[in-house]
Structure formats: structure tokens, C-alpha cells
């Protein structure tokens, strides 16, 4: 990175402190960081897109499993009750709480799945150096805009806190959906760390050209 400012298309703004830098070609495995705050601006990894797609596909499958399989079951005084993610959403579907049910469904199921689908659609052809699909830039932009609103990890944290409080009153059995959700959270963190937004935008532009 240098302090010269030749063309606007060659400038990269740090998402943390807005400092402008000039984009340069990086050697394989190198990273370029902000001169002011140290935030990673660019990285060069030839296998990054393939790894991102692999993680996104894995997270998508785990997300489907998390919605399909039992989440947990409670046993208290001989009475047993099993629930799933869908049951948790439907629990708020009566009366004035219905908007809350819609919000829960969107934040923990619909938006994460939408973001993963958009990412796979946008970057899938780049794995084989193919031409991106029509609307690939729009799809990747959508995936980035949905990043703060995909709250599967918040759901897991909330459930974990609730389980700690309930564990003393009932026997709790964690179902496969819980572990699938936990896997989605871990994979999402790893996937987001691999995403170099500048490099992906450049790759989409070059592949389209």
C-alpha cells in the first residue's frame, strides 16, 4: 500500500477507519493491512474462493439439518417434551406475538439461508474460472448486506444460556439440530474470515470481462 492516489478505481477504503490506500497486486499468501488501524484490507489466496464455496455448501446442508431434526428434549417429572427450531418459531405464532414469530424465522433461518444461497450463486462459477452468473455482483452485494442480520449465532448463545438455567430443573437432551446450528456458527466465522471483499469484486469484474 502507498499514499499516492492515482485513480478512484484503484483506491481501497478501510472499513474500520476509512483510510484510503492504493490497491496493488499481492504475492500468493500475502495480506495488505491498513496503515492506521491494522485491519486486513486485501489478501491473496488462490484457493480462497474454493474454500469459501466449500464452507458455504457445508453450512447450507447443516442449516437444513438444523431446521429438520429435533433441537432438544426436556424430561421433568416423567413428562418429556421434544422441540425443533420450527416449534420454537411457532411458539410465538399466536395473537400479538405473531410478528415476533416472523422475525425469529427470518433472522435465524431465512436470512442465513438466503445469504448462503447468494454467496454460492455469486462465487460458484469462479471455482472453475468460469464466467459468473447473471446478477452475480448483485448476489454478492446482497450476501454482504445480510451479514449483520444473519443471527444464527445469537440464537445459539440464547439457547445455551437458557439451557444452563433449565438444566437444574429438568433433564435436557441436546438433539442433532443443536450441533448442526453450532456447526453453522463455526463454519460461518471461518468462511467470513476467508472473504476478501476487494479481491472478490475484482474477480467478478475480471471474469465478466
Cα Rg: 21 Å
Structural class call reads: alpha+beta
Using the alpha-carbon principal axes, give the shape: elongated
Unreliable stretches: none
The main β sheet shows up as: 3 strands, antiparallel
- The proportion of residues in beta strands is 5-15%
Number of strands: 7
Residue share in helix: 40-55%
SSE string, helix = H, strand = E? EEEEHEEHHHHEHH
Number of helices: 7
Distance between the termini: 26 Å
Strand order of the largest sheet: 6-5-7
The number of distinct structural domains comes to 2
What is the strand and helix layout of this fold?
Blueprint lengths: L10 E3 L6 E3 L8 E3 L6 E4 L4 H21 L3 E5 L2 E5 L1 H6 L7 H26 L12 H10 L6 H15 L4 E4 L1 H19 L2 H12 L1
Helix pairs in contact: 1-3, 1-6, 3-4, 3-5
Question: In words, what does this structure look like?
Answer:
The protein is an alpha+beta fold. It has two domains: 1-44, no CATH class; 48-208. The protein has helices at residues 48-68, 85-90, 98-123, 136-145, 152-166, 176-194, 197-208, and strands at residues 11-13, 20-22, 31-33, 40-43, 72-76, 79-83, 171-174. The strands form three sheets. Strands 6-5-7 form a three-stranded antiparallel β-sheet. Strands 1-2 form a two-stranded antiparallel sheet. A two-stranded antiparallel sheet has the order 3-4. A hairpin with a 2-residue loop joins strand 5 (72-76) and strand 6.
